[in-house]
Specification:
8 strands
């Protein structure tokens, strides 16, 4: 039988960080499983200490094994461009890299 992905549904907390400009801030996410290969993820965070942001994206499970899932997403965020995200996730850790035309960095989330 194929390897099952870890259970990612629920609330996650951590931070985001830009490798391009050094900005960082708090980050929260809610994962909702759509089917065996898809999660809807809503991210909420703050930029520049006080500016809130929120966006929802669909993350596709591209492979699984040993309790770890690899996920990809692509989301156009208006004037900020298209953000591409690749992530490694387990039951308790979500580590992602994002990139766009003008920025790149990471999301670090834990249960």
């Amino acid at each position: 039988s194929p390897a099952q992905p870890p259970a990612l549904s629920g609330k996650w907390s951590g931070y985001w960080a830009s490798d391009t400009n050094g900005h960082t801030g708090p980050l929260h996410a809610r994962f909702r499983q759509i089917d065996a290969d898809t999660y809807k993820v809503t991210y909420r965070g703050r930029f520049a200490v006080v500016v809130p942001f929120m966006y929802t994206t669909t993350m596709d499970v591209v492979s699984t094994g040993d309790g770890v899932a690899l996920l990809n997403a692509e989301k156009r965020l208006g004037p900020f461009g298209t953000f591409r995200t690749t992530a490694t996730a387990s039951d308790g850790a979500f580590d992602a890299n994002f990139s766009s035309r003008r920025d790149s960095g990471r999301f670090v989330l834990r249960r």
